[in-house]
Design goal:
Length: about 230
């Protein structure tokens, strides 16, 4: 028989390639329904441990400052923590009125921040992990495509702030892969050469190696690239 010390709450989360859980929530921008309110959009849902904490404050200021860049990529932002709506509003007001960080000041957070006191949404996305905390969400990022399918999942420890340029790079890479049927190599940045899909047989491999596709070059039969510039 398990003791209380050995009993662990089962943590489940949607996996890459699966439909993201649907939810309705109260936020700092009013009530939202996912995915209904975000049809045709990419969505970044991200959680933070708590309002009025320094790492989370730098993250929200950075995300808010980049919101237009994400909108230009047809991407909407949704934040979440298990704090109350009143705490959210007070924290975001403090950010806008008092905090200056790395040249960012008077930063207004215009994307919705979910009130999740009962942890309903956080539990659906595996954001409550008892080994870390049973009362705070971990620092998680879920990227969903316009069909509400999970495409990327990132987790960070509470001590480390996220890299938002990397999150933007992920969106750009996923959208390019979907549009052009390519893959992106290690450390890829927009404008770098991309990988062409590997052939499915030796015959198609030979055809690929000998094809005259514009900008194509191969390092071996299974590893062909396309020049982007």
């Amino acid at each position: 028989m398990e003791t209380n010390e050995t009993q662990k709450e089962l943590v489940t989360l949607p996996l890459i390639g699966e439909k993201a859980p649907s939810f309705k929530a109260v936020t700092t921008q009013g009530e939202i329904s996912f995915p209904e309110d975000f049809k045709g959009k990419w969505v970044i849902l991200f959680s933070h441990p708590a309002d009025f904490t320094p790492v989370c404050t730098t993250e929200f200021m950075t995300f808010a400052s980049m919101q237009d860049e994400f909108k230009a990529l047809n991407t909407e932002l949704i934040g979440l923590s298990v704090d109350s709506l009143y705490a959210h509003i007070a924290w975001l007001r403090t950010i806008q009125e008092k905090i200056e960080y790395k040249g960012m000041k008077n930063v207004e957070v215009k994307f919705p921040l979910i009130e999740d006191i009962k942890m309903d949404v956080a539990k659906k996305f595996g954001m409550i992990q008892p080994g870390s905390s049973s009362t705070q969400a971990v620092r998680a990022v879920f990227v969903m495509d316009p069909d509400a399918v999970v495409r990327t999942i990132l987790y960070y420890p509470s001590s480390m702030g996220r890299n938002f340029d990397e999150i933007k790079r992920i969106i750009i890479a996923l959208q390019k892969a979907d549009k052009e049927s390519i893959a992106t190599p290690a450390n890829w940045q927009p404008g770098d050469d991309v990988i062409l899909p590997p052939p499915g047989s030796c015959g198609t491999a030979k055809e690929r190696m000998e094809s005259d596709e514009t900008g194509k070059y191969c390092l071996d039969w299974f590893m062909c690239f396309r020049k982007e510039s």
